[in-house]
Amino acid sequence: MSETILELKNIHKSFGTNSIHRGINLTLKKGESLGLLGGSGTGKSVLLRSIIGLERIDQGEILFHGERFDHLKETLLTPYRIKISYSFQSGALFDSVNVFENIAYPLFEHTRFSYQQIKDKVAEMLKLIDLPGREHVMPSDLSGGMQKRVGMARAMILNPEVVLYDEPTAGLDPANTLNVIALMQRFKNQGLASIFVTHDIPSALSLCDRIVVLHEGKIIFNDTPEKFEKSDDPIVNKFNLSSKD
Ligand SMILES: Nc1ncnc2c1ncn2[C@@H]1O[C@H](COP(=O)(O)OP(=O)(O)OP(=O)(O)O)[C@@H](O)[C@H]1O
Ligand SMILES: [Mg+2]
User: Fold this and answer.
1) CATH for 4-242?
2) In the predicted model, is pLDDT for residue 230 greater than 80?
3) What angle do CA 224, 230, 234 make, to 5 degrees?
4) Where are the domains of the chain?
5) Ligand 1 near 20 CB (within 6 A)
6) What's the 120 CA to ligand 1 centre distance in angstroms?
C-alpha cells in the first residue's frame, strides 16, 4: 500500500453559528489526485485554507507524514506551506512585476539559490507551462489562461509534495481549461499529489484517482471516478447529472 502524506482527522470548523465542517476524515496518498466536489458554500475553499493554516480548525488534527501541524504557530508553519502548496482560486499574481519575478518569488524568499540558478529554474518551469522565454512579460499582457499557468508555476517552483488547487479552471474557455488540466496531469506524472477543488466534473473525472463529495459538513462519498459515475446516491447523482448538461 502506498504511503499516506496528508491526513485530516475529525475536522470541525464553524464561523460563529455557521457550522461548516462537522467531522471530516480524509487521507491523501503519495502521488494521488483527489477531486473535491460540493455545492457552492459547502466549505471546500475553507478546507484547503485550513490545511495550510490560513484558517484555524476548531477541533480535529491535520498530519503531514504522520506529524501533526495544525496547532503550530504561524512561524512554524512555513516548512509545511513549502511542502503543501496552495494554488489560489484567483491565480493571484503580483501585477506590478513581470512573469520572472512572479515565479521566482518563492525561490528568493525561501532558498539560497544563486541568481543564475533561479534564472535556470524559472526558464525550465516556463518551458513546462508552455510559455518559454516569457520572463519579461507583465501579467496584464497575458491571457487569463496563461496567468493561471504562471500562478501554478509559482505554486510548483519549490517542488512541493502536495498541491491544493482551488478551482484552477474557473472562468477559462474550453481550450485554456484543457491546457490547465494537461499541466496538472504533467505535475501528477512527476509524482505530485493533489487535492483538486472544482465544479468542473468532467475534468475531475479525467484527472483524479478518487472523488470526494462534501455535503452539509461531511464527506458523503469517497471512491473512484468509476464508482462515482455508477453511484445511485441522489446527492452524488446531482453532481453527476450536472456534468452531463
Ligand atoms: N473568513 C470567513 N468568515 C466567515 N465565514 C466564512 C469565512 N470564509 C468562509 N466563510 C463561509 O464558509 C462557508 C464555506 O465557504 P467556502 O468558501 O469554503 O465555500 P466553497 O465550497 O469553496 O464555495 P464555492 O464553490 O462557491 O467556492 C460559506 O458559508 C462562507 O460564507
Ligand atoms: Mg471556493
Assistant:
1) 3.40.50.300
2) yes
3) 105
4) 4-242
5) yes
6) 39
